[in-house]
Write a structure and sequence with these properties.
Growth Hormone, Chain: A, 176 residues, mainly alpha
C-alpha cells in the first residue's frame, strides 16, 4: 500500500474514533457521575495533551521522524482509549485524556493531522495535490460523520441487554 493510501486509511479511522468520542466522552463522564466541573477538567486535559503533542511535532517532528511521530501518536491515542475504558475517577480519567489526547470536540485538529498534511504533498505530483487533499478531507469528514453515528451504539447495546457502563466501555475499547 502506498503512503497516500496509508495516510487516507489512518485519517479515516482516526476521524471515525474522534467523531464517536466527540459525542460519547461527555456522556460517558456524566453517566459515571462526574460533575460539570470534572467533565470540563477531563475535556480540558485532553485538549492540553493535544496542544502539547502539536507543539512537539511542530518543533521536532522532522527531527524525530514523521512516521515515528505518527506511530507514537497512534500508540498514545490507543492508551488514552484504554484508559477511558477502564478508569473511573476524575484524576485518572484526566490523565488518560491528556496522554491519549482524547478529543471531545468531534473534529480532528491534532498533531497527526498536521503531520499527515505535511506528508501528503510528497505523495503526489503538483497536478495531483489538490485532488489528494480533497480526498483526504472528504474521507475525514465521512469518518467524523460515521463516528458520530456510531456513538448511538451504546443505546443499541443497552437495548440488547448489555449493562450501560459496559456498553460505553466497549466503545472506548473500539476507540483504542
Amino acid at each position: 500500500m502506498n503512503d497516500r493510501r496509508l495516510i487516507y486509511a489512518a485519517a479515516f479511522l482516526r476521524a471515525l474514533a474522534t467523531g464517536m468520542a466527540g459525542v460519547l466522552l461527555g456522556l460517558t463522564l456524566a453517566r459515571l457521575g462526574f460533575s460539570a466541573a470534572a467533565i470540563g477538567a477531563v475535556l480540558s486535559a485532553g485538549l492540553a495533551g493535544a496542544t502539547l503533542a502539536l507543539m512537539v511535532v511542530t518543533w521536532a517532528g522532522d527531527r524525530l521522524g514523521r512516521r515515528r511521530c505518527l506511530i507514537g501518536l497512534s500508540l498514545l491515542g490507543a492508551a488514552g482509549g484504554l484508559g477511558a475504558a477502564w478508569v473511573s475517577g476524575p484524576v485518572a480519567m484526566a490523565a488518560a485524556a491528556f496522554v491519549g489526547t482524547l478529543n471531545g470536540m468531534g473534529r480532528d485538529r491534532g498533531a497527526a493531522l498536521v503531520l499527515e498534511q505535511a506528508i501528503l504533498p510528497a505523495t503526489t505530483d503538483d497536478a495531483g495535490r489538490t485532488n489528494a487533499f480533497a480526498r483526504y478531507n472528504v474521507l475525514t469528514d465521512i469518518g467524523h460523520a460515521l463516528g458520530a453515528l456510531l456513538a448511538a451504539a451504546p443505546t443499541l447495546l443497552v437495548a440488547a441487554g448489555v449493562a450501560e457502563t459496559d456498553a460505553y466501555r466497549a466503545m472506548f475499547l473500539l476507540y483504542a
